[in-house]
Amino acid sequence: MSAPPTGPGEVTLVGGGPGPAGLLTQAGRQALDRADVVVLDRLAPRDAVPPGTEIIDVGKENGFHRVVQDEINEILIDQARAGRRVVRLKGGDPYVLGRGGEEVAACRAAGIEPVVVPGVTSAVAVPAAAGIPLTHRGTARAFTVLDGHGPVGDLPLGGDHTLVVLMGVATLRPVVETLIDRGKDPLTPAAVIENGLLPGQRVTTSPMRCLPDVAERTGVRPPAVVVLGDVVALSPHWNG
Question: Where is region (Disordered) located (predicted)?
Answer without folding.
Answer: 1-20
